[in-house]
Amino acid sequence: MDKIVPDQSIQSTDPDFWDELYNNQLTRWDLGQVSPPLKAFIDQWEDKAARILIPGGGYSHEATYLVKQQFQSICILDLAPSLIRQLHIQFAGYPGVKVVEENFFNHQGQYDLILEQTFFCACDPRLRESYADKMYELLTPGGHLAGVLFDRDFDSPGPPFGGSLQEYIRLFKDKFDIHKLERCYNSFVSRQGTELFFHLIKKQAAIEHT
Asked: What are residue 191's DSSP bridge partners?
C-alpha cells in the first residue's frame, strides 16, 4: 500500500496559523506547567539516556521537566517560527536538548520514547491515521508512545479537537500493544474527567492499513 501523505493545505500543518496563535497568546490548550499525568510517567522512567521526542512541543513544559530530571537526549519538534526562536533561547546551554522547526509528518529519526501532550488534539482529525503511522515509523523496535488524550468533544471549532476511548482503540490497536488506556486519576484541575492516559508499545510486526 502507498504511504499516506498528509494534505499540506490542512490548517493544522500551517506554520503561519500556529505562529499567529502563539503571537496572540491564543493557546487555550497550554496548562502553563508540566501535565501532571506526564510528570508521574516521567518520574517512573528510569533510562535517562533514552532518546525522547516531544512533537508539537509548544512551550515545552515537559522538556523543561525532563532536563531537571537529567534526561540526556530530548528532541522538541514544532512548526511555529516565533516559538522555535523562543525555545532556542530557552534551551541554549543544554546540549541534550535539540529544537527542530519542522512538520512532524516530514520528520526523520528513531526514538525510544515519544511523549504526547496536546499534539494529537492539535492535528486535524483527518490526519489521525497518518499520526499513528508516523509514530510507528519514528519509534525504535519496542519503543513507547505515552501521554494524554482528550476524552470529550469541544463546542467550538478546533484546535483543540476531541476524541473518545473507542476511537483511540481503533486507531492504535493494529500497530501498538495498548499497555494502558484509561481515565486519568491525576489530571490538572481544569481537565478532571476529560482526559485519558495512554501508554502504547510498538508492535514488532504491525498490521498495515488497508
From this structure: none
| In the chain, domain spans | 35-202
pTM, full prediction: 0.85
What is the mean predicted confidence (pLDDT) over 89-115? 96
Grid cell for residue 54: 516531544
Instruction: State the helix-helix crossing angle for 15-23 and 81-90, rounded to 10 degrees.
Output: 60
Write down the mean pLDDT value for the chain.
86
Alpha helices in the chain (DSSP H): 15-23, 36-44, 61-68, 81-90, 128-138, 165-172
Closest among 87, 76, 39, 24 to 188, alpha carbons compared: 39
The domain made up of 35-202 has a fold known as Rossmann fold (3.40.50)
Per-residue model confidence (pLDDT) at position 1? 35
DSSP class of residue 107 equals -
For residue 28, how far is the Cα from the chain centroid?
16
Q: In Å, how far are 121, 149, 173 from 154, measured between CA atoms? A: 11, 13, 25
